[in-house]
Amino acid sequence: MNKITPASGQQRLLKLARYHLGTPVTNNTAEAVDEPAEVSDHAPGNAKLQQLAARSGAPEPGTALTLGQRVTRRLQMQRERQQQNLEKIMALALEYCPERVSAQEIDPDWFSQYCELVLNISNDNMQQLWAKILAGEIATPGRFSLKTLQILQQMSHKEAQSLQLAASLSCRSRQEQSGRIYFGYIRKPSLWQLLTGRSMALLNLSQFGLSYPQILNLVDIGILHNVEIESGELQPGQSFSWQFQSQTLNCVALKRGVVLQYYKYTVVGTELLPLLNSPTHSGYLSALQQQLASVLQFK
Asked: Are 116 and 15 part of one and the same domain?
């Protein structure tokens, strides 16, 4: 068990910033970079092009700069923007740092790679997620692998939205902490199935916002396993519980031969899932209970 130190998470983060970045971090650390004014989504294409050109460092029409000066200007703007991203994420992380943290120091190599990976993260929602990761790593060093950071850094905003949707349908069990998305069950062949014609029940997750292409995308980027998982065969009277955010669902198996089906998160997905705080989709939870009511009793 790790020792506990009186130092707060904020103090640990400030120490890291001073040592590795050479500057203190506060909520007002990042100075504004001289950015072009935002252009409306309905603006003409040439206006958007001019905005992008300005962000790249290209001079305004009529400005006489040599090619070398334009290169220098672009690189300087890029570095300032990267520094601003880094310092903003550091400032956000201060808000998530817990009061008490492990006495174990954060791995300096991990922190160095973390800083490199966040330089080009400018989306507000993604910055919040990266800030939570740093705060979590300070509280419990070793909680987030470098593989998780690398996958997250390559994740687009659209993929992050898919992950948020998946999180709203996800649960954990006491028996296994990896995240799961349950979508139905199957039953082994029996006389009951021959008489009723019911051998399985499946939920269409797209009606709750998570389409099959989005699931495949989460598989491709290493968030979900690439196969549909089946539980072991349930025994009548077997009890277990599922944790959907703050809500616990207690279940008891009613019939023999029932196998539950679900998508399972990879190690990377399991590390990211607690950071998302997506409210559980109430419609999904109701539909899941209704779908499984013939084979599970919910308390």
From this structure: yes
> Are 91 and 25 spatial neighbours (Cβ–Cβ below 8 Å)?
yes
- Nearest of 155, 144, 158 to residue 114 by alpha carbon: 144
pLDDT of residue 220: 95
Query: pLDDT of 215-236, one tens digit each?
Result: 999 999 999 999 999 988 999 9
pLDDT digits (tens, 9 = 90+) for 4-41: 444 677 888 887 777 666 666 665 544 545 555 555 55
154 has a pLDDT exceeding 70:
yes
Domain count within the chain: 2
User: How far apart are alpha carbons 125 and 205 in whole angstroms?
Assistant: 24
Q: Are 117 and 166 within one domain? A: no
Domain end, chosen from 154, 182, 205, is at 154
CA-CA-CA-CA dihedral for 134, 138, 143, 146, to nearest 10:
50
109 in the same domain as 210: no
The predicted model scores a pTM of 0.77
Domain end marker among 154, 172, 191: 154
DSSP state at residue 108 = H
Residue type, 280: T
The neighbour count for residue 114, using CB atoms within 10 Å, is 23
d(CA 24, CA 186): 57
User: What are residue 201's DSSP bridge partners?
Assistant: 185
User: What domain range is 181 assigned to?
Assistant: 161-298
Tell me 234's DSSP state: B
